[in-house]
Amino acid sequence: MTENIVEFSGGAIGQWRVTKMDTVRGQGLEQASHIKITQLTEDYSPDKSAAWNLYGCTSNFRYTEQVEKEQLKAIEPELGRSFATHGALIPIRKSAAWWVLAQDKRRVIFESQSNHIKTDLRYLPAIARKLYHSRDSGCHYDFLTWFEFAPTESNSFEELVTTLRKSPEWDFVEEEVDIRVVRIQ
Amino acid sequence: MTENIVEFSGGAIGQWRVTKMDTVRGQGLEQASHIKITQLTEDYSPDKSAAWNLYGCTSNFRYTEQVEKEQLKAIEPELGRSFATHGALIPIRKSAAWWVLAQDKRRVIFESQSNHIKTDLRYLPAIARKLYHSRDSGCHYDFLTWFEFAPTESNSFEELVTTLRKSPEWDFVEEEVDIRVVRIQ
């Protein structure tokens, strides 16, 4: 039952070295020098040496409609491209005011007002992106988004996160940590 | 982080006595004489004496739109009404074909074609209902739905489950267990 669950451990070891760790909103996470990413297996036990462990699972789309899904699928790259040595982990937690909204109201804010999917599409395939859901598995954060891109795309990545942070959807983000990493060769 | 999570344990003890346990589809669950419902706390440890433990969390609406939400809120009762001595726990698992559908396609099947919310509304407030999400927390089932009603509503409850099982949405249900219970006074 653990095949979709990934652990992000912040600590002294990992495949990714942390270059910058900013608390954008909220209480933040303890500084860590590395991030270790582990796909959970049945015999897994938590990495107790880490400063923090965050868990998320891949899940179904919550807002994406059929036409958008096809646009995404057409250009979405896999993770792990050799040139994509820069990355980011961005845990966010949305407010109670967001979660109490009905599905249609959330969709309007998410896409009609905030162009969340359109913004993601604009930076694909250069910036690979994977969303992990953590709200329904007891994590403090609702979502953990993982990004991978070439060093030459660093400015584009800044643009992407800046655009999203200015959107009406972000009025409902009460906690956000922005962790930038580079892959250890 | 456990405040929204509930454990349903099937075993020899619990507040609810099992009167009938049917595997509607799929592999089913081991027979149990009682169901124990536990709200998880930080110092919780799983009930290892139980035949099975299922975990679910309350979460945001996935399909309910604003107008429907208001209709539901207006007549939805709380659980625990003294006259509502009959209950049911219905774990279901939907197929991969369901989960791969985009949000708009799932909504069409769920409500436009299957009238899932309209059907629930028709039996409110007589049949109280609480949905627990389990798909994103590593459970075999996607949803655990808990119902409570007066003994005089037993026929209405049969109607409700029969109506849903005949709906196009149920073409995507690959596992379902129907566990009927009565409250121990």
What does this structure look like?
Two copies of one chain form a homodimer. Chain A is α+β, with helices and mostly antiparallel strands and 185 residues long. The first copy, chain A, contains five helices and eight strands; from the N terminus they run ββββαβαααββαβ. Chain A has helices at 66-75, 96-99, 103-113, 116-122, 154-165, and strands spanning 5-11, 16-25, 34-39, 52-57, 86-94, 128-133, 143-149, 173-183. Chain A has an eight-stranded antiparallel β-sheet. Chain A binds chain B through residues 1-2, 5, 57, 59-66, 68-69, 99-107, 133, 135-140, and chain B through 1-2, 5, 57, 59-66, 68-69, 99-107, 133, 135-140.
With strands numbered from the N-terminus, the spatial order across the biggest sheet of chain A is 4-1-3-2-8-5-7-6
Task: Give me the count of strands of chain A.
Answer: 8
Quick check: average pLDDT of chain A? 95
- The quaternary structure here is homodimer
In helices, the fraction of residues of chain A equals: 10-25%
Outline type of chain A = globular
Beginning-to-end CA distance, first to last residue of chain A: 32 Å
| Contiguous helical run count of chain A | 5
Secondary-structure element string of chain A: EEEEHEHHHEEHE
Q: Spans of chain A of 5+ residues with little confidence (pLDDT < 50)?
A: none
Specify the structural class of chain A: alpha+beta
- Could you describe the largest sheet of chain A, including whether it forms a barrel? 8 strands, antiparallel
| Largest interface, counted by CB within 8 Å of the partner chain's CB | A-B, 30 and 30 residues
What share of residues are in beta strands of chain A? 25-35%
| Rg from alpha-carbon coordinates of chain A | 16 Å
